Every structure is written in structure tokens, then in C-alpha cells.
Amino acid sequence: MTFSSPALNATAARVQVMTAAARAAQAVTDTEQPPESRLQTLMDAHARVLAVRGPGNPLTFSDFRDLLTQDLSLLLPSHIAAEELQGVCLITEDGQYDDDLYDLEQEQMLVLRALAKAVRGGRTPSGESLAEEMDQERAYTALKKRGEQAVYVQGRQALIDMPAGSDKDLRKLRIPSSVVDFYQPIAHAALFDRWWFACPVCRWPMKITIQRGRGTKTGSARCFHRPHAAMGASYIFGIPDGGRPPSLMPAASAPPRPSGAAAVLFTDVSGRVPEPTPAEDHKALTRGVWRWTTIPGLVEVGLHRALEARGIKVDLWPALDAYDLHVELPAMSFRIDVKDYSNPLLLGKKIQADEGDAGGAQWLVVPDFRPSSVPVLTTVCAEFGLRVATAGAMGQMICEKAGIAWQ
User: Fold this and answer.
1) What is the pTM of this model?
2) Phi/psi of residue 202, each to 5°?
3) CB-side neighbour CA atoms (13 Å) of 257
């Protein structure tokens, strides 16, 4: 793949190294996979990394294998800046693949797509992976097909309110059949025997892990979205006998409710222990739709509902999703776009590639659990006239302008 932009070249190199190394790390840690299959995956990944490094930066297969447990930036050639890969480790201290890195891979691809479009005048190359639409984009296209605002809002909100459920309940959702196809059987990674557990924050199936010790086995269930796990969506369980479902116990005390503006939208999961649900006749959204529709949608809908409850006029996804929220006050309005990236540097790069917000948003809002991203994004967004705030701070600001209380 040849690119005409240095920034695009460097981003593409980091994406290829991240993708190849991630597949290799998964193969290394997947002891249930046949040895010959694992070796083939490692060899393919090694070849892909060598292609990025070039003849002037050799790397033996043995060194490649060893570096999978170290800082991922060490796999890059010296002329490519590490940026978002700096300090990233694919394999945890207990020898498990770090599944949270799914977010970083997806964010890299979104930036790569945006850069490719900018270089090619809005076009991505057909026939290449960059041109393949991501699940959530295809879902949005299907929801927009009728061109009716109410239909779009109703359908998108359904994907946020019910990311998983029984076939009976899913049939009641008023969404196009092409969107229903994004509900798939519960993934193996979220199953214990024939049971799954819904995250108390987002209601999507949680990741199940079995730890084996000296003659003992214990299990854990935690949300695939790390911030939700940090809110308390993380549990342990003993292995039951005779095919019975396990009973979850909180892995740690849930964090206290935050103070200040962030308290309003905070989800308190203390005392909420998920019950086992049979996998039969149940489905869940594909991971892409869940991650890029349900997860940020919780903030979008949460802010919408909180402002409406305070008597403020708010529209969700106006003009078929030009941006996420339009707030109308007597003397001013707010056009808001919500983004939830795990890596603020990558979000900043996407904003630069897009030259701001294509839909005309004035504000970029991030979840309250990502306050550290605000300074970085503020610097980037200032060039394009975008202002940045956390969701709670945004709600408080709007309420202050309206002369009412947020908290």
C-alpha cells in the first residue's frame, strides 16, 4: 500500500505493527489452539512486522517472539515515532492477552481511514481494508435509509438501550432487518458453559476468564470496556458443580460516587450483581456496534435525559446525525459531539485529519471518566474552533446559562 502523506505512512506503519503483534500475542497466549496453527500465525505476523521495518532494520523470529511481552514500540523501525504505541504491552503480567487493546486497534483504524480520505480528497481506495466500512457505519447507513429523523433516533436509541437480549425482546425493537443482523449469538469469550452475564453499566455480555491454580479453578467476569470495569462491573466466582450457573461476587468495592458535576451522570453499580442468563435464544450486538454506538451512546443519551429532566430543550442526533446533541436556550444554542477514545492522541489526529467536526459541532464532549484527555484535545481543537469539556462539565455549563441547577 503506497501513501502520499508522511503522516499517513507513519500511521499505517503503526497500525500494521499493532495488528500483526496483536494477532501474534493472541496466538502465544491461546494454549487451546493447535501448535502448528499458533506457529503459522507467529510467522505471518513476523513477516508483516519485517515488511514495516524494512531491510535496514532486521529482527529475528526469536527476538520478535520475545518482544511480544515488552513495550510494543520496540517493534517499530527507528524512523517511525512510537506515539500511541509507546508503553503499550500486549501480554499482561499473568501471561494473558490484554483484550482492552481492542479499543486502541479500532481507534488506529479510524484515524487511518480519516487520513486516507484527506490525502485522496475524500476517497478511500476500493478493494483495500481501509475501504471496508466498519460495523457501526453500516448500521448507521441502514438506519438513515428511510431519511426520517424519528426512525433514525428510535433505531439508534434501541442499540444503546438494548445491546443484548432475548430473541423475543429483540423482535420488538422497531429497527430495520438489516440492523437486526448486527445482533449475533453470545460470543464464546462471554460464556461460562451456557450462561452469560450482562454488564450493569452497558448491559452487554461481560468477558469470562477462568484462572487455573494448583488444583483449583476460579472464574472472573468483567465488562469488556475497561472504564465500566473500573466502575465496579468486575466480579469473581467459584466454579459450580453439575452444570449449575455460577454466582458472582464483586471483585472489589465499587468506587464512591464522584463529587461535583460528574456526579449527575455517574452510574452506581454498588449492590448490583448480575444474574446468570442462558445463552440459548439470546443475542448481542457485534463488538464494533457495541463499542462505537452503545458505549458513547450511554453518554449521549444520559446527557440528553438529564438536561430534558431539567426543562431544557435538547434534540438527539439532529439532521440524521450531523452531530450528537443540539441544545436550544433562549439566548444561545450548543451543538455537541460526543467522543469516547481510549487514546486522546489518536482522537486528536482524527480531528486534525477531519479538519474539525464535519457536522458543524461547536463542542467536543468526552465521558466524565476521561478528564485527562481534555488538555490534549483542547490544544488540538482550538485550531478548528472546537471547545472541549467532559459531559458533566458540559451539563453544568448549559444549566448555568439557563439559570437552573445541574446538581
Assistant:
1) 0.85
2) -105, -10
3) 12
Per-residue pLDDT of the chain in tens (407 residues, 90 and over written 9) = 344 477 778 888 999 999 999 999 999 998 778 888 889 999 999 999 999 999 888 999 999 999 999 999 999 998 999 999 999 999 988 788 888 788 888 898 888 888 887 765 545 444 344 444 478 888 999 999 989 999 999 999 999 999 999 999 999 998 998 999 999 999 999 999 999 999 999 999 999 998 877 777 899 999 999 999 999 999 999 999 877 999 999 998 888 999 999 999 999 998 899 999 999 999 999 999 999 999 999 999 999 999 999 999 999 999 999 999 999 999 999 999 999 999 999 999 999 988 998 889 999 999 999 999 999 999 999 999 999 999 999 999 999 999 999 99
Q: What is the maximum span of the chain, computed from C-alpha positions, in angstroms?
A: 68
Judging by beta carbons within 10 Å of its beta carbon (0-12, 13-18, 19+), is residue 93 exposed, middle or buried?
exposed
How far apart (Å, rounded) are the C-alpha atoms in residues 371 and 66? 35
